[in-house]
Write a structure and sequence with these properties.
This protein has about 140 residues and is mainly beta. It is about 5% helix and about 45% strand. The strands form 2 sheets. The protein has a 6-stranded mixed sheet, with no helix packed on it. Strands 2, 3, 4 and 5 form a 4-stranded antiparallel sheet that branches. The model is unreliable at about 1-5 (pLDDT under 50).
């Protein structure tokens, strides 16, 4: 791997919360309690259910369903409006806040199946792409799978 390859390598804007693969795909990372089986996002040091500190880091499903959302029509100049923020329920039982894109705000509805999309949104001082996430309508369907 060359210095140019390293400089172009995509990196997560939130290391430890978003795993970014070399091909641009990725997964949200969270915790699973080995004692009671509860899941959490983001990664935790202790279980909120049973207070155990025996947790493992897990990859969450990239698919979920919209729990609720809002259309943001006024924001700072850095963000183009309107955009949609929503809570997405993942099959592991966690609820994640994220932007929902890939369609018009009027097309989003509660219960809409969505899929995680890892996207570049800038670069750091070394020229590495900074990667973040949003959710998009799941064209394959299925929601919580």
């Amino acid at each position: 791997m060359t210095v140019q390859d390293l400089a172009a390598a995509p990196i997560s804007f939130r290391p430890g919360e978003l795993e970014v693969n070399a091909d641009g795909t990725g997964h949200l990372l969270g915790s699973k309690c080995r004692s009671c089986g509860a899941h959490f996002y983001p990664v935790r040091e202790a279980c909120a259910g049973c207070l155990s500190d025996d947790l493992e880091t897990v990859r969450f499903s990239p698919r979920g369903t919209v729990y609720t959302y809002t259309v943001v029509r006024q924001s700072t100049p850095a963000f183009e409006v309107p955009y949609v923020l929503g809570y997405v329920d993942l099959p592991e039982g966690v609820r994640v806040l994220g932007q929902i894109g890939g369609c018009e705000p009027g097309d989003i509805r509660i219960g809409l199946p969505v899929v995680l999309s890892v996207e570049a949104f800038g670069s750091d001082e070394e020229g590495n792409q900074l990667m973040g996430y949003r959710f998009r309508p799941d064209e394959v369907g299925g929601g919580e799978s």
